[in-house]
Amino acid sequence: VQLQASGGGLVKPGGSLRLSCAASGFTLDDYAVGWFREAPGKAREAVSCVSSSGDSTYTKESVKGRFTISRDNVKSTVYLQMNSLKPEDTAVYYCAAEMNPHREYDDHIPLTSEFDYWGQGTQVTVSS
What pLDDT is attached to residue 26? Predict the structure, then answer.
């Protein structure tokens, strides 16, 4: 059972990246999946999460309108499209999966403790 995060890199302010989170050894059908990030000296925070069906999402206020989460259950992969990147988006980005087919994000802020599996992290650096 493994989550593989990829797609990070160095990009200039205003640029774009697409992160991918691929599951191996299991399928993501019954899992809510989230992207978290951890900047140096700061706590890990939820960036964007999506329910198992894809119908419910959470997006951190500071990235709304710039980041979009999506999922392809056939490929067992979740994506985070990041546009208009800012230096403050610099962090290690992690994907995580929560075994909960009923998770909804309408009135819920995701907690790291809710997630069962974590990927290894991918570095995103936004700098000119």
Answer: 86
